[in-house]
Amino acid sequence: MIGKREIFNKMKKVLGSSPDSGKGKSKMKKHVTHGYHLVKGKAGHPMEDYVVAQFKQVDENELGLFAIFDGHLSHEIPDFLRTHLFENILNEPNFWQDPESAVRRAYCITDTTILEKAVDLGKGGSTAVTAILINCEKLVVANVGDSRAVICKNGVAKQLSVDHEPSSEREHIEGRGGFVSNFPGDVPRVDGQLAVARAFGDKSLKMHLSSEPHVVMETIDDDTEFIILASDGLWKVI
């Protein structure tokens, strides 16, 4: 998350105890700061979410790298994403000229690698929302799944990501030979299993899933107050 200290403090009060949290700030513009807060919910399995929040110097440029990786049936895959996705993005030769295309290719390459390493990484998968802040002026946001990025400018909130819900992508899923279940009391699911239409991994469902990210560019100016990245645990539960 990038934003004001009071937003971070309010979220800490809401989210509860035993968090993995931290904060930092840009060296280029001292008023640009970030904080993150990670806490396990009440599910009876080990933590499957991972966070990236850091500023990184690349030659004469500064990059803010921020992400939420929300795993399902896996902690190995979101952990792999935490380690490799930004590395793959920044290794794209045209990142500085065309960051949107670079992000799209890196998402695809990373998912292909995960599928190739399925024996080691196991089953399951992960959603992702990533934000790259370039020199505190340009923001590149991408996502697969239902983790969201929301920006606030002049007191008005706008969602930058897209929730990849099975119901909204039914035609695409059925076109690939899958189906969307909609049982009473449950959310729509791909092949009766997965509650998102796009994700990294999920090799057993990949014929019917996509890992193509939604990508958007946003200018960061004096009107920008804060940006929040969070999983569906915040947006849909809390």
Supply the key terms.
three-stranded antiparallel β-sheet, Phosphatase 2c, domain 1, alpha+beta, single chain
What is the fold named in CATH at topology level? Phosphatase 2c, domain 1
Number of distinct beta strands: 13
- CATH architecture grouping: 4-Layer Sandwich
According to CATH, the homologous superfamily is PPM-type phosphatase domain
Task: Count structural domains.
Answer: 1
Report the average pLDDT across residues: 89
Order of helices and strands: HEEEEHHHEEEEHEEEEEH
Share of β-strand residues:
25-35%
Biggest pleated sheet: 6 strands, antiparallel
**CA-based shape:** globular
CATH classification class:
Alpha Beta
- Summed up, the helix count is 6
Secondary structure class reads: alpha+beta
Radius of gyration: 18 Å
* Helix proportion range: 25-40%
From the structure provided, what is the oligomeric state, counting identical versus distinct chains?
single chain
